[in-house]
Amino acid sequence: MISTHSPWIVTPGWLAANLGSPDLVVLDGSYYLAPMSRDADAEYAAGHIPGALRFDIDKIADTSSPLPHMLPTRDAFADAVGLMGISERDTIVCYDGFGMFASPRVWWTFRLFGVETVFVLEGGFPRWVAEGLPVELDIARRAPTCFVAHKPPDVVADLVRVQSVLADGSAQVVDARPADRFRGQAPEPRPGLRSGHIPGSLNVPHTTLVQDGRLLSPDQLREAFAAGGVDLEQPIITSCGSGVSAALMWLALDAIGIKPAGLYDGSWTEWGARYDLPVAAGP
């Protein structure tokens, strides 16, 4: 069953009914910030959805960048996922161990490279387990194949573009970090980053878009964006700490019929480390 809140979200029941289909690929895309004190690889090894492959966003990334899990090149992505046995023609379901946090980043990445049938598991691994569905320890393998990647659309925003849209007012930059980090009232989880936010940016915490690993209803999502001062009639570039929950925000905007203008991949990890750039604090 596809979730009523988004055409890109499937339920555990739907996934369980389709496990074993040869063209179905399940990906554990779990990722955790250091303060969460969780090890995604260890958790995958301790138990995962049957047949699931481990998709590490820090490894399938632009490893030449000093920033974490930046979008890889088209060829690098195609090579990496092809070796995993994934084709662009497969049906892909992404999940994570938090419920719905990093899995939308995996969904967003595959969508950028041209996959039409890629979905997020509603409730993630916690809901899968809560519903009493099977878990396995065996490490899945698929035979390598060829992944034909499309050229990504021009939606990956860099620092220069973010500065430009804020200067001329052509787009809103909306930050998905928790409110206390956005306001500069809590330290950043990564060392070397200042506290605060990009001057002129808005804040819609990702926790206001999801409850128990489920995307909120369209009306609730609109209320959350309105509470953050976002004008849904104007272009939006999503941002966060390092481009992960910015993809969750992208999924939420898509669910209410909004196509974001971009995602700032470097996000606060890039801006907050640059002492030549201004920082704002407070609401």
Describe what this molecule looks like in 3D.
By secondary structure, the chain is an alpha/beta fold. Helices cover 29% and strands 13% of the residues. It has helices at 12-18, 40-46, 74-83, 103-112, 124-130, 159-168, 179-182, 218-227, 245-255, 267-271; strands at residues 9-10, 24-28, 53-54, 91-95, 118-121, 156-157, 172-175, 202-203, 210-211, 214-215, 236-239, 262-264. The strands form three sheets. Strands 1-5-4-2-3 form a five-stranded parallel sheet. Strands 6-12-11-7-8 form a five-stranded parallel sheet. It has a two-stranded antiparallel ribbon with strand order 9-10. α9 links the parallel β11 and β12 (262-264). α4 packs across α9 (245-255).
Concise overview:
With 283 residues, the chain is of the alpha/beta class.
Please count the beta strands (DSSP E, at least 2 residues each).
12
Strand proportion: 5-15%
**Which structural class best describes the helix and strand composition?**
alpha/beta
| Residue-averaged pLDDT | 96
Shape descriptor reads globular
Question: What is the ordering of alpha helices and beta strands?
Answer: EHEHEHEHEHEHEHEEEHEHEH
Taking the sheet with the most strands, its summary is:
5 strands, parallel
User: Helix coverage percent of residues?
Assistant: 25-40%
Radius of gyration: 18 Å
State the end-to-end distance.
Answer: 40 Å
Strand order of the largest sheet: 1-5-4-2-3
**Total number of helices:** 10
Features:
single chain, alpha/beta, 29% helix, 283 residues, 13% strand, five-stranded parallel beta sheet
